[in-house]
Amino acid sequence: MGIDLIMTFFSCFDSQGNVIARCQTSQEIEVLKRMGRPIAEVRQMKKEEAVVCSLTGSPSEFDQDY
After folding, report:
1. With CB atoms 3.0 to 4.6 Å apart as the test, which of 12, 14, 28, 46 could cross-link to 21 if both were Cys?
2. How far is CA 19 from CA 11, 15, 36, in A?
3. pTM of the model
4. How far apart are CA 54 and CA 41, in angstroms?
5. Strands in 1-66 per DSSP E
6. Is-contact 9 26, C-beta < 8 A?
7. Alpha-carbon distance 19 to 31, whole Å?
8. 47 near 53, Cβ under 8 Å?
9. Per residue in 16-64, pLDDT tens?
């Protein structure tokens, strides 16, 4: 029996389609919105993208304001 260690990550985009944050939970996304980040769209990352994100650091390291 294997353990699935792939976590779910979300990419947050501004209205121009630029990635402005990567988050692991909807609560993190809401905090960023309350902080005034211009999040226009949120998309769940593909499993292969999430693996890279989880191996290279935490999502909060991508968003320097959080």
Report:
1. 12
2. 7, 10, 15
3. 0.65
4. 21
5. 10-13, 19-23, 41-44
6. no
7. 17
8. no
9. 999 888 888 888 899 999 999 999 999 988 876 766 555 445 555 555 5
